[in-house]
Design a protein that fits this description.
- By secondary structure, the protein is mainly alpha-helical.
- Helices cover about 60% and strands about 0% of the residues.
- It contains five helices and no strands.
- Helix 1 packs antiparallel against helix 2, helix 2 packs antiparallel against helix 3 and helix 2 runs parallel beside helix 5.
- The relative contact order is 0.12.
């Protein structure tokens, strides 16, 4: 068996000279970066669907606990915090997860009422009846926060779809 060496024989294709480039790399002038892509400009941090749910759950549970300790009821403080958290969650959620804020908000509000709301009787049955009563009494806060979240999510959805239609691509 014959092995070839790495040295090329004179007159073969490996020894042929390659043409020089049209201009040297030093002569190429780098193009300026556009002003919009400056390294100091950062996109706002967005919440995922799970992050949106966690934000709403933590704030509603904390407000429910604080309301229960301070005022011995679930009322105005929980409602105000729920509306503010619904606004913040629907503004900060990613565009691909826009439906998460209006869906997770009422669930977290109901959980806060379940844990910190009034109980109508002993056991889980009393807690469920107390939850139904608290949801009926605090329906205004629930509807206000949910309506705010739905409105913001729909406005963001339509503005994003309008921007996609106007894009030249």
């Amino acid at each position: 068996m014959e092995y070839r060496t790495s040295r090329a024989q004179p007159g073969t294709e490996r020894n042929m000279a390659l043409p020089k480039p049209a201009r040297s790399p030093e002569a190429v002038v780098p193009t300026a970066r556009p002003a919009a892509a400056a390294p100091t400009a950062r996109a706002p941090q967005r919440l995922t669907a799970i992050g949106c749910g966690v934000l709403l759950l933590v704030t509603c549970l904390a407000a429910g606990a604080l309301d229960s300790m301070l005022f011995d009821s679930s009322g105005v403080l929980l409602g105000l915090v729920y509306v503010a958290a619904s606004f913040q969650a629907s503004v900060k959620v990613r565009s691909s997860d826009l439906a998460a804020a209006p869906i997770s908000g009422p669930i977290c509000f109901a959980l806060a009422l379940l844990f910190f709301g009034p109980a109508a009787g002993p056991g889980w049955g009393g807690h469920v009846i107390g939850l139904a009563e608290a949801l009926a009494l605090d329906a205004g806060w629930l509807f206000a926060g949910t309506a705010l979240s739905v409105t913001i999510a729909l406005a963001r959805h339509f503005s994003l779809s309008h921007a996609r239609k106007k894009a030249p691509f």
